[in-house]
Each structure stands twice: as structure tokens, then as C-alpha cells.
Amino acid sequence: MLTAVDHVQLAAPPDSEDLLRAYYTHVLGMTEIPKPPVLAARGGCWFAAGPVQLHLGVEEEFTPARKAHPGLRVTGIEEYAKRLEDRGATVVWDENLPGHRRFHSEDPVGNRLEFLEPHPAT
Question: Potential cystine with 30: which of 47, 83, 84, 96 (Cβ 3.0-4.6 Å)?
């Protein structure tokens, strides 16, 4: 039986690890986690924030994910959006998901990311 999502893998172009590290750690506030040595040889990098893990893997024929995306739950979404904007990331609000505040952004290689927070029950 499925019990949880272990991680989400996104693709990245070769030699983009420094850009990814800067974005995922300094902009999003995640922590880089070590890849097993056999996988580290392939390039890319992994990040975590609590139980959330995003893995960025090198893809030679890279095309950014424009529609497919991870949906990342946040707390204090207004403050989190400001954090991203203050660090140079684009924030595009979308009010089309009932019961949630959400926005989209993209990482430095063009992958789409969604951030959302449920509205408190009224």
C-alpha cells in the first residue's frame, strides 16, 4: 500500500548544480542532503525541508517542466511569497483552487513550482 510520497524528481541541465543550490537553499530555505556516491556521480543534487524532498537530476536533453510540477504546502504563504520575491524569484498568484491560497514560481532552470496553503476552516 502507498503511504507517502518519498520525493519528487525534477530535471535540470548539465552543470546547473550551483544555480540549483543557490535557489533551493537560499531562496526556498531547503537544506541540501547528500546523494549516495553511486548516484552523485551522475550529477544533480537533492534538497529537503522537513519530510519534503526534491531531487534534481541532470538530463542531457533538458526541457523545463512548464505544466508538470510539485505542489508544495507552506505555512504563512504571504510571508513565504515575500521571501521568494525579496530573493529575486517571480511569484504569480492563482486564486482558482477553492479553499487554498496558492502561487506559482519557477526555479532558475525554468521548472514550474506550486506553493499552497489551505484556508483555515471557517
Answer: 47
Which domain, by its residues, includes 49?
8-118
pTM: 0.92
**Residue 87 in domain:** yes
What CA–CA distance (Å, rounded) separates 44 from 63? 15
Residue 42 lies in a domain: yes
pLDDT tens, position by position, 78-98:
999 999 999 999 999 999 999
Please tell me what DSSP assigns to residue 35. Answer: P
Neighbour count for residue 100 (Cβ, 10 Å): 16
Asked if residue 3 belongs to a domain, the reply is no
- Report residue 45 as a C-alpha cell: 543534487
C-alpha cell read off for 89 = 524569484
Give dist(CA 122, CA 104) in Å, integer.
25
Residues 6+ apart with CB under 8 A from 99: 118, 119
Q: Give pLDDT tens digits for 25-40.
A: 999 999 999 999 999 9
Q: Which amino acid is at 81?
A: A
